[in-house]
Amino acid sequence: MRLGFKVFGKRKVSPLEELNKVWEKLDMAYAELLAARRFMRDRRVRRRMLVTAAATRNIFLTPDILGWMYVKSCISELRAASRKLRKLAECEELGEDVRLRLKYLAHMLANPGEGFPQLVSIVVRARRELDLITKALEGGS
Hints:
The chain is mainly alpha-helical and about 140 residues long. It has five helices and two strands. Helix content is about 75%, strand content about 5%.
């Protein structure tokens, strides 16, 4: 068994592969935040959507509702990334410092809050911390 491998589900997965999946989740969360910001703050988009909502008489097409749907989706992506990190932190082949960083990052992503600026800062900090963890794992392998 190679160093750093742990069984997740039915096949053996490298911690770096799991971290790549977390990277994808963080990228998706950031993209959802950008879409939410566009719906909530871009006047042109808001005006078009409000005209469309008025013409179709559909209250669910308002830019605020769609923006908050993207924010909620971002929060669920962050929580899913937190679950993956918590599971990865249980891997005993990893060093203690890496495991502590993974636990810290999982805790940070578990309850991100709902404020838009707070979510953006959490995603940016998480990406920075994940980059440090990835470099530590690549250097230690």
